[in-house]
Amino acid sequence: MKKFKRLIALALMMVMCFSMIGCGEKDAFFGKWAYNHDTATEIIQFKADGKLTYKGTNYSYTDNNGVFELTSSSGNLNLRYVLDGETLYLYEPMTYHYQGEGEADGIIGYWLADNGRSNYEFTTEGTFREDSYIPGHYLLNEEEHSIKCVYNDHYMDTVIYYTLDGNTLTVEYPWALVRMQ
């Protein structure tokens, strides 16, 4: 009987340990997050019921190895992410349109975002300019659909992901989010 009680106690302890491990990843995101440059404005909130709100829209979601797959009645959205300590880097998509004549030659050329302000210009020499005044050079990885932007100034090197469809370029840029207090 003593062995049976020990086995029961061991089984209960293992169940408790595994349940804590299983909840750990959800707990890492739980709560409200804001851009690190605007800590008063909520961007995303992870809720206890396994749902989230992103920019005012409610979604159910799954975490698929570094990609939040969001589903709502208004559509689906995939957001890459990296959790680095207390910072959540959320790769938000933005659409750009080629501003040259004819068809775009890969990413080369001037690209203007739907908001009419943000832009990228990529050259054949491997240089780029972001938002018309932030220069640097880039490394293109066509296999991973990524561009490493190496800035000339004080900005950190940044890897962005892209999708090219004719004269439309969708860029996923990592924005640093911090927990709201």
Strand content: over 45%
**Unreliably modeled segments:** 4-24
Structural class category: alpha+beta
Mean pLDDT over the residues: 88
Q: Main β-sheet: number of strands, strand sense, barrel status?
A: 14 strands, antiparallel
Our measurement of the CA-to-CA distance between the termini, rounded to an integer number of angstroms, reads 51 Å
Q: Could you estimate the helical fraction of the residues in percent? A: 10-25%
Supply the number of helical segments: 1
Could you state the order of secondary-structure elements as H and E? HEEEEEEEEEEEEEE
Q: Which shape, going by the Cα principal axes?
A: globular
Number of strands: 14
Instruction: Tell me the radius of gyration.
Output: 22 Å
